Amino acid sequence: MAKSIFLNMFHPHGLVELLGLGTSEPATDITALAGVTRVAGRWVEIPDYGCLHVALSLNFIGDTCLRTNMVTKKALAEVRCGDIIEIVTDNLSSIETIHFMSPNYSGKNLVTYRDEKCWKIYVQRDTTAVSTK
Length: 133
Prior knowledge:
Layout: H1 2-9, H2 14-18, E1 36-46, E2 50-60, H3 65-78, E3 84-89, H4 92-101, E4 107-114, E5 119-125
Parallel strand pairs: 2-3
Antiparallel strand pairs: 1-2, 3-5, 4-5
């Protein structure tokens, strides 16, 4: 099994498939990816912070740090300016890297909240970011 994973990583589409992002047909929408839930106007209340309006919820319980970062990057590119993404994870490395990488992808870290089983990170698509496209 390890050999097949190693060989797949070096196939042109292997790393993408290994991360669970690849399919036989490219996904055109972030919601086509496993663990991604688009929510319509869901409000969440965060202790000692307040209420946030979440546009997209990403569930990465049990996933690797790399998959968390790749899907979050894609989500930040897809949502509208000002939208808030909820990232749910149980991987400590993911939390550290999301805080580091999100400003590079037009994201602003609002708050990280720890509940009994996981962390929830709330990132807002930066409204002051200038698109280079």
